[in-house]
Write a structure and sequence with these properties.
about 425 residues
Amino acid sequence: MSLEIITPSSGSTLFTETKGFPALQEALIRGRVALQDQTGWKVDKSCLVVRAFDADPGAAIQATILSKAPGALLEGLAIAAFTSGATKAIIALATPSEALSDAIPKLQKLLPLEIEVRAITPSYMAGEDCALLQLLAGKSAMAGGADQPSTLVVNADELARLASGSRNLLVQVLGAVKQEAVVEAHEGTTLRQLIFEQCGGMKGEKGFKFALVGGPTGSFIPEAGLDVPAPSGTILVGDESACTVDMAQRCLTFTSEENCGRCVLCREGSYQLKEILSDMASGKTRPDDEAQIQELTAALLEGSLCKIGPRIADPLLTGLKHFTEEFEAHMKRKRCPALVCRKYVTFHILGEKCTGCGKCLGVCPEEAIEGEEDYIHVIDAKACTQCGLCFEICPEGAIVKAGPLKPKTPKEPIPVGTWKKR
């Protein structure tokens, strides 16, 4: 599925490139403008650092600005530098931009600003300001370091908004929608409008289940909560086939592996939360799990030195709040209602659908499937490791997942067509 760029019907303001940097020229004529009033940023900085890459997995907002509106990025950078008194700027990006390189000399004719373009290897922690500055200094991307009072870190999309004077937001919608897209949305556009109008609603036949807003440290939003203004950033949409426990586990696994490790409570707390979710998805929950979650969350809030740590538990906490029954099914009844968590799933071959094609035989790593050509195949439940490869490759949809209620299937291979549904 291709990633589209969706702009307002009234026309784009963030992706409209103009010649000659008119907004900058107006700022130069008027003199210093009240940048702090416009953006909330503190002024009087000697250096600006532009984050022109995306730190969150799968995100493409900053990359989209860099590729589609490099002039707007530079113009916003120049206005920010002029109004804050900065004499140097560093643009950190993942891949070289020819359009950016071509435009920089033209900009410098209007404003003598030293601009350095620095290619870096993006990482999740580089989304935190101090960690990015450490990375640019040739050190490890460690968060929560010493303050850099003379340096201002801004994102590419913030500069594009500054150049255009627009209050529009850039939101990236991913997942189970008909059209994944980077959307330029008017301020106040709701999550429901983004998902069901601008991105076409849900793909396939499954209904909406959740929106994970804000990446790996984001929050689960149920359908009842969609009528709120969408924030800038990423939104991952899940349909009814998704499991919130599994998705929360993926988030905690990612942040546990990617965090910088400077804070002991963040490092150990995120690991312990990940382990609790892993146990929850594999039938190993304990009576005190919820109490431990609350204790670890409080430790993250108190002991984290950067803005990432306090939000690490948000997917878990919002999942517990809005999808209580699904979490309780895992913790208390040892079931996964969505049939996603492997421990709670078994695979079966329906005798009335199997054509004996043999494709599942070739992909099973445990050789847990019995059968031959023109014979209904049978899965040995004791040997099966629930990898799901047979389920994915079956061209007839004859292999199904089951929870506590299991379908009737042949006990041994029999000729195709001799089994009738019972």
